[in-house]
Amino acid sequence: MQTEAEIKRQLLAEAFKYDMQLAQLKVQSDLNKFQEQEDRKDERTKIQATQQSELIDQRKNNTLPQSFENNNNNFLEDFGDQLNA
Fold this sequence. Notes:
There is one protein chain. By secondary structure, the chain is mostly helical. It has one domain. It has helices at 2-61, 69-84. The protein is rod-shaped.
């Protein structure tokens, strides 16, 4: 009976250890996901700020309209490359 209780105690301790490791991995995964979302948001904000600056410059200097599609496509390609890496 004592041997059975000792084996059960060891199994519970091992299960607890694995559960703790799993919980730590989940927390780390959630933090990484949040950080990636924030990084993408920061990148979009930078692009938007650059475009706004160019539009302001266009208005001040009465220049021809800007096309931002090429810049966005490059960003999306770079972003896709980062996801695949």
